[in-house]
DNA sequence: ACTCCAATATATCCATTGGGTATATTGGAT
DNA sequence: ATCCAATATACCCAATGGATATATTGGAGT
């Protein structure tokens, strides 16, 4: 069922990667079908032979992001390391991460790659944290708690709602909040969040 | 400095409310300047006398959302009630909530209303939870933890990444995860999350 | 080797969108 | 009554996602 490439080569993969590059650079909203097509030397209409519509192309990019994140997370078996790796991925690829987490309910049902890739992410987290104590359900809930916490923190940080002084400070703080700080670390909390009371870095 | 309305009345407020209605119905992406203008009987160009650009109109809507959420949250002084109210607002106004949380860093700096409204939200949470034990910093961190947790859970639930069986089930579960369940409640966790292992509601 | 045909790519076309510029209108201050 | 800045309109434009029709490619069947 995997057809050999005809004219251009594997346009599906080529287009997905080109789109991903553009998206990581400028964000998904600023990435047009024509821009992607230009990048790889085709007409924008050629893409419609491989993707139902623009959303489908974005979904393919999101799926590729899920796969990469899953791969990055697989060797991180300790909870703290796991969370750290997750956060660093999101901070290193903010536009991609946002795209991944903003796929519509429909996209998850339509683009089979996507649901599959997202489920793989959940599974790798469940497996990696299999060493935690407690029943399966307790572990599952712990994974959910960690995920919600780090994702929520990231999302609030990546938009301007909350503003940490730096990415590194953000990671330190989120680990502290999750109760996963290094034993000998004592993060100074009060200096982290810069909202109206204390402006970012003057003095 | 508050100018009386000239031709149409207070177009700023009228347009913001119309935009909000459209956004709550169809989402921000699907709401065009022209659609808003039609709704209130003006030209789309008239809006540019009150909003710098499309983003600014969306930011005004977001600010109004922040104000409403803050108002809803003010009387909820117990942590559990607070979180419950927050979650219910987001679930009742999913498109609006997403818009609020997706304002760009720039928007927060440019549209003064917006930063102000977002800060008011943080403050009301800090004040409401002032009864919690611990130092100011500990309380601040506790607020952040609760916020990140509930927001992260909501965001994952509102997109299709995680799928709870229902909104009510989601609220119950998020409270349990946060350690804020009613004492006599014993939420059955395993039945909540429906991802690939067990499809939504058949049986 | 030749033909055929489905998969793939292109060529035009269209409505809608955000935003620009120039012009008209309004109504309070003088 | 007049003037002028705030407001609204008229018309324009390039870019975008998507539709339809046509051209091209190259492997399968003979």
Q: What's this entry about, in short?
A:
With 203 residues, chain A is mainly α.
* Largest sheet entry of chain A: none
Quote the distance from N terminus to C terminus of chain A: 64 Å
Instruction: Kindly provide the radius of gyration of chain A, computed on alpha-carbon positions and rounded to a whole number of angstroms.
Output: 20 Å
The helix content of chain A is: 55-70%
Along the chain, the helix and strand elements of chain A come as: HHHHHHHHH
Q: Please report the number of helical segments of chain A.
A: 9
- Largest interface, Cβ cutoff 8 Å: A-B, 42 and 41 residues
What is the CATH architecture annotation of the largest domain in chain A? Orthogonal Bundle
Please identify the structural class of chain A as seen in this structure.
mainly alpha
Indicate the proportion of strand residues of chain A. Answer: under 5%
Briefly note the CATH topology name of the largest domain in chain A. Answer: Tetracycline Repressor, domain 2
User: What average pLDDT do the residues of chain A reach?
Assistant: 88
């Amino acid at each position: 069922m995997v057809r050999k490439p005809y004219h251009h080569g594997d346009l599906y993969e080529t287009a997905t990667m080109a789109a991903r590059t553009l998206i990581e650079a400028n964000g998904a909203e600023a990435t047009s079908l024509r821009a992607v097509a230009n990048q790889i030397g085709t007409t924008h209409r050629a893409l419609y032979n491989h993707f139902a519509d623009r959303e489908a192309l974005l979904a393919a990019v999101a799926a590729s992001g899920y796969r990469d994140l899953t791969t990055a997370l697989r060797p991180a078996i300790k909870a703290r390391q796991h969370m750290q790796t997750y956060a660093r991925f999101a901070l290193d690829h903010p536009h991609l991460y946002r795209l991944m987490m903003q796929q519509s309910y429909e996209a998850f049902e339509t683009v089979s790659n996507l649901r599959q890739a997202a489920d793989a992410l959940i599974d790798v987290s469940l497996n990696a944290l299999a060493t935690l104590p407690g029943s399966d359900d307790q572990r599952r809930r712990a994974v959910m708690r960690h995920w919600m916490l780090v994702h929520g923190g990231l999302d609030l940080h990546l938009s301007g709602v909350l503003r940490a002084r730096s990415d590194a400070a953000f990671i330190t703080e989120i680990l502290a909040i999750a109760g996963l700080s290094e034993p000998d670390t004592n993060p100074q909390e009060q200096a982290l969040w810069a909202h109206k009371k204390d402006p970012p870095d003057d003095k």
